[in-house]
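[job 0412] stage=fold_complex status=start
inputs:
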Amino acid sequence: MNPALSVPALVAPAIHLPAIGPVLVLAITALVLLVLDLLPPRERKEHLGVVGLAGIVGSLVVSLYLWGADERAFQGMVILDGFAIFFNLVIGFAVGLVLLQSLDYARRQGAESGEFYILVILAAVGMTLMAGAGDLIIVFLGLETMSLALYVLAGSFRGRIESAEASMKYFLLGAFASGFFVYGLALVYGATGSTNIDRIGAAIGGGAARDPLLVVGFGLLVVGFGFKISTVPFHMWVSDVYQGAPTSITILIATGSKAAAFAALLRVLLVAMRQGQADWSLLMWGLAVLSMTVGNVVAIAQQNVKRMLAYSSIAHGGYILIGVAAGGALGNSSVLFYLLVYTFTTAGAFGVILLLERGGREAVETSDLAGLAARHPVMALVLTIFLLSLVGIPPTAGFVGKFYLFGAAVRSGYVWLAVIGVLNSALAAYYYLRIVVVMYMREPDGAPTVMVPSLGGSLALLVALCGVVWLGVMPAPYFELAQTALAPLLR
Amino acid sequence: MRGMALSLVVFLPALGGLLIALLPRDREGLVKQATLAVALVTFAISLPLYLGFDARVADYQFQERRPWMPSLGITYHLGIDGISLLLVLLTTFLMPLTLLASWHSIEKRWKEFAVTMLLLETGMLGVFAALDLFLFYVFWEAMLIPMYLIIGIWGGTNRVYAAVKFVLYTLAGSLLMLVAILALFFQHGAATGTYTFDLPVLAQYVLPGGQTQNLLFLAFALAFAIKVPMFPFHTWLPDAHVEAPTPGSVILAGVLLKMGTYGFLRFCLPLFPQASITFAPWVIALAVIGILYGAWVSTVQPDIKKLVAYSSVSHLGFVMLGVFALNPQGLVGGIIQMVNHGLSTGALFLLVGMIYERRHTRLIADYGGLWKVMPAFSVLFLVVTLSSIGLPGLNGFVGEFLILVGAFQWNRTVAVVATTGIIFAAVYMLWMYQRVFFGEVTREENRRLQDLTVREWVVLAPVLVLIVWIGVYPAPFTGVTEASVQALISQVQAKAAATAALAAR
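[job 0412] stage=fold_complex status=done
writing structure:
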């Protein structure tokens, strides 16, 4: 028989839905919300938030149910392993807390709309995709899904010029970053002949490591990631966006999107670029030092609490990069653990700010917090605990997280990196404690700051507080979880 | 319950504090009584630690060990030896008195104050009882925040500056110690295969001499030197003391400063013996400078509280001198002097607080002739002053004498120079006493000052009893430490010799 004439049977690509189970739940939730949005009632949209929350919980349950899975589906485009599931959990907590805090907040600020909740869920879809991406194309797909939703969300307070500015800046700079990312992706494809993370790793192992095309492509990918994890020098957007965006969306940008970007970055570094560890480790060293130092130094000068937390977020990106630079099982699992801790801490700290109002506007200036301890002792105490966790004072989770990160650095021989890290922590103590000073040791002037009661917001704070305290006192099981989650990447 | 005795002492104050936080704010009387009761019960249950302590045993007693983070070799490990026993007791002893002294002097947010003080007590007790480096560090750092709040909320006019300075100074030092702890952990793990933060295990390990050991020593020493505080890291102390409310000052002087000297004893000496011996001349030089500098600066202070604050720099210089003379007399003297300083300086701050409550000034120039107005107060002040100077028959003499005996064996010149510090102490204390209490009553306002109240007698009497007791019959106090001190010295010498042998090989 003439082989040229034989028509190979069309094999439909294997479809293995459980591998995208968590994403699927979220995507369906988003579609349901789209339909629900068209139904009455027209004025109140809180029920959409509640349905979205149910979707997040569903996705968390599916993730937990699939714990222990280790599979690749859709020709290796999607991976469902412990690593992906761990990040699904982090993202689930982040988005869940954001939804809880948005319920009341969005209405109070006159920005309640169906799209708000739909976009939050769509952003979650993108983040979850990134966490389980086995292919750079999927990383990009997730990145864009997430980013587009966030661009719109950042501008969802349409009445406010700062919100519009945040959206515009985020979009423009984000578009550039995406451009860099795609260009890098193309170059890496050119150098290795694949966009699949595993196969890129294999190709590099086969001798493509010093290919200039690969080096440039990899550099561009790092620029794209650097933008999303807000490292210096790709941090220019952070302060304005964090300040201008609705506070609950700021939480989402600071926690969920950061965690998703770290998930994809770690997979690229540890699987695709494993051969070049010695090189990129130094690069991460530099980025870590720059981010910590610039973030903390600039944060000292901020008077707006949201801006201050924005720079602190840059600095925390730097601390997390210490773990990436240190590498190994200890370093990378510290990264995972810290992202979990950081999610609770940041959601909590912003969550308190979100509940405060002064004279009908949001209380986001440092001076607005003056004398808060006398008026609302519980709120002041809760914010203090979150701030102490950001400083890294025991027995909060922030301390244990930093302890693991610095420990990893010392173990890998980067003692100076750890020293720079701890000095930065001391520097950071100054501006975090300034908030405590203002709350406890100053008298308010002018209109008093009031707390707006909100069931969802209080519940979110309670969850975050439990996370921060519990992870600080009993971190061992969760750190071991992170180590287990990381194992598939280090094989 | 012997297995849990130490945990109970350490955590009872915090537990009580959390319960008191739930009491209604307007029932201030109830809050005060409950707080005092918690502190008293803590003192009561800490007494069995002394009674059940076997002074012949050098090893840690009342040990408790539970796994905490097994994958990193972190355990919940508590235990006390003769060195920490006295400091634990000093803490539990001073706390009820301090609370009683703040009955009226703390005028706002008494409930928050009570909770903060009780949390602070748990932190301090934890520092003295922890035998795991990680656990120790947790307590060490956790204790910063309550003290920060006490200075910052209940302090004087310039309180915020003082509070922030206190935290940043201490934090900068202790974070470097964290890196050193981690470095030691991995060094020990790589060398022996056992990754652990357990102090008794780490103390067995002979760290190679040279740069690593020196750097680790310096990182630990910086954290402790800031806390002591040794010259030239002392500048936070006058600010913190002057701005802190009376109870804050008492606890700061009485207990917190001891954490620095305790750290040197507990960690620097056994973990880095070679480096300790190498750097001993430097430490002693700084200690002697501190003794003289503290005394000189005290002499010219116009403010009684600031005078007492600077005298702490001088007194703790003596403690450091005794510790780094590295012989039994010096070490025992240093430990006793830690307790003495806690009692005498604590009492001085209490007395200054009492007079401040009456007149709202601490300037020496605003007083004069108080002896005629307040005879009982004046007598007690005199006894404490003499104890602080080191008059034989009172507690200060025992510690200083032993330290100077130790220093004399180490180097005669050092001992001679340090002894002049005692003379200067007499100068600044007695001169201050003379200006405040003798002569004619120069100010009209001072004529009708009330003498000690019953509550104030209750606060001061126990301290005075101990001051006399230690001065006349110190054996019950020195006795419990001797075995531990002997063990410490032989450990330092053995390890230093082993390090030297390692280098020679």
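[job 0412] summary: Residues 278-491 of chain A form one domain.
[job 0412] exit 0
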